[in-house]
Amino acid sequence: MTVTARTPRLIIVRHGQTEWSKSGQYTSYTDLPLTDYGVHQMRATGRMLVGYGVTNLVKPAELKVIISSPRKRALQTRDLLLEALPVSQKMGIRMEVDEDVREWEYGNYEGMLTEDIKAERKKKGLKGQDDWTIWEFGCENGETADNVTERVDRLIAKIRRYHKKALDNNEFCDIMVIGHGHILRCLAARWVGKSINTNPQFMLDAGGVGVLSYQHHNIDEPAIYLTGAFLVPVEEEGESL
Ligand SMILES: O=C(COP(=O)(O)O)[C@@H](O)[C@H](O)[C@H](O)[C@H](O)COP(=O)(O)O
């Protein structure tokens, strides 16, 4: 009997807590490490996320690629997520670092809080004072929504190539992207073809995990999982527990 491999998934992980994710300061290129709590968070998340236990979301052999932001907080998160796995299981995972996963470039707003950005814009008489959002107005001397859309779409195209190959060959293919608050919310929006020029209204705390996939086992029907049923996939019904 041929087993149908589970529909490919994209696991998105925002890095664990940093001093600035805690305070709400915008952090793009500033290369902060995780706080002690952030380290604890991602170790605990790793034990839940990857392994061969019945409650693990991702089985190491099915995790084909991890694509990380080049920032220290993302790479540290990746290492902590995999820390409990034996080397032999880590070796089968392709590790990539991709500039397209770096955080939205905040330009003048690096290190600032939302309320300070609004005050600054008011002082300068810029559009979007009380109602500034990064989605609509972007950042002074930083990236616009269009800039970010271009690189997120390039990233999605790469992921879809891996996923399509797996679907064509009936192979399992989970991919994990480890990045940042804004870039991953953009990724989720673009995954289902939505514009990011308006706030996509997704929440993703530091240390948060989300799952994107495809409906009906069809690469042309990308979708976002709303529930945790992926923890006990129906495909595993026949497996001994
Ligand atoms: O800097 C951010 C994300 O980068 P990272 O910590 O590397 O994931 C932002 O998301 C900030 O955390 C920002 O302060 C936050 O988005 C506040 O937004 P809002 O609640 O809409 O004012």
Describe the structure.
The chain is α/β, with parallel strands linked by helices and 241 residues long. 35% of the residues lie in helices and 13% in strands. The chain is built from eight helices and six strands; from the N terminus they run E-H-H-E-H-H-E-H-H-H-E-H-E-E. Strands 3-2-4-1-5-6 form a six-stranded mixed β-sheet. Helix 2 crosses helix 3 and helix 7 crosses helix 8. The longest helix is centred in the middle third of the chain and has 24 residues. The model has no long low-confidence stretch (mean pLDDT 94). The site of the ligand O=C(COP(=O)(O)O)[C@@H](O)[C@H](O)[C@H](O)[C@H](O)COP(=O)(O)O has 11 residues, from helix 8.
What is the helix/strand order?
Answer: EHHEHHEHHHEHEE
Strands, total number: 6
Number of helices: 8
As a whole number of angstroms, the C-alpha radius of gyration is 19 Å
Determine the fraction of residues in helical runs and give it as a percent range.
Answer: 25-40%
- Which CATH class is shown? Alpha Beta
Ions, cofactors, ligands: which are bound? Answer: the ligand O=C(COP(=O)(O)O)[C@@H](O)[C@H](O)[C@H](O)[C@H](O)COP(=O)(O)O
Indicate the structural class.
alpha/beta
Between the first and last Cα atoms, what is the distance in angstroms? 20 Å
- What is the overall pLDDT average? 94
Globular, elongated, flat, extended or rod-shaped: what is the shape?
Answer: globular
Widest beta sheet: strand line-up: 3-2-4-1-5-6
Low-pLDDT regions: none
Strand content: 5-15%
**How many domains, in number, for the residues?**
1
Report the sheet with the most strands, covering strand number, pairing sense and barrel closure: 6 strands, mixed
CATH fold group: Rossmann fold
